[in-house]
Amino acid sequence: MAFEKELQVAQLAVARASILTKAVFAEKAKGTISKEDKSPVTIGDYGAQALIICAIKHNFPQDEVVGEEEASSLREQKDLSSKIWNLVKDTKLSDSDSDAILGGPIRSEDEMLQAIDAGNSAGGSKGRIWALDPIDGTKGFLRGGQYAVCLALMVDGDVKVGVLGCPNLPVKDSEPLKEDMGIAATDAEGYGVLFSAVQGEGARSQPLTKGSVSQGHSISVSKVTDVTQAVMCESVEAGHSSKGDNAAIAEKLGVTGRPVQMDSQAKYGSVARGAGDIYLRLPVRKDYVEKIWDHAAGDLIVREAGGQVTDIHGQRLNFSLGRTLTENKGVVATPADIHAQVLAAVSEVLSAK
Ligand code: AMP
Ligand code: MG
Predict the structure, then answer these.
(1) What is the bridge-based pairing of β-strands 148-155 and 40-41?
(2) Which of 168, 232, 237, 245 to mutate to test the pocket of ligand 1 (most atoms within 8 A of CB)?
């Protein structure tokens, strides 16, 4: 199989980082600070980024990483840095062979900070570049909702491997989506799923464990024949996707059920396994440019599961242009069979505005 080693490292790295995020999720104090763009970041985001980048660099020293976080504020806030280090140094997979594949523990706080900063690649269309969102849906993570640990490998701007760790989604692919699903689910029986895909090899899911990873099983998007029965997924945060436009599109399609709101790329995972049918992300602001780490893994996993992912104009997401999706606006992810129909409704609603 192609990219076998990359897939294994990515899955194990996401599983190990999820142990740390779950520990932080369970704590009241999450060491939250506000970034320059006013969005929140927690000790969980930093710790997960450090663990994943160290695992990548141990196995593929030449590869670059586009990571959401950087460590400059941590170098100024020593107390925060040492809190993260206390978590990071003790986080390991329970299967020692698997942990050794990742290079074992990080050796020092300084190495941890350097790893966080190694997520500074400019991205682009050449070479091997990983896209990492250590905690996607940080607002959901803080609210006790859905979040995802997201990692993808791009080669020459094309996504080849995608992995999503979703600690608060049900293990069972067919479990109907509910808004309160997985709230405070960390370590509850039946929760925590690891999605993965390799280009050309399909998409798979398996329980997210603390030990090792397995082959998992193949997943596919739903077979919706009647779009009025489709389950739509959208963000919780009104500032991240236009709920008014989504509602107008649903009405145009005759969709009867209310949309399920959940944070993070858990939406992509849900569409890929057929628990949800349609993921719409309609722009709220004209000037917002989507980040590659918010979409790279989910895009591949949905497409490999038989779905189609485009922006609101029907263009494929273009990951080769740097850290952001400069040529795309919004996201429309659905089973391939209904994509044209959904996109037509999106166009009608947007052109009528
Ligand atoms: P979600 O969980 O679907 O709400 O998406 C979370 C992601 O939305 C975060 O990782 C941010 O990078 C991204 N984000 C922040 N501001 C915006 C915005 N104005 N429009 C779209 N996405 C945004
Ligand atoms: Mg994110």
Answers:
(1) unpaired
(2) 237
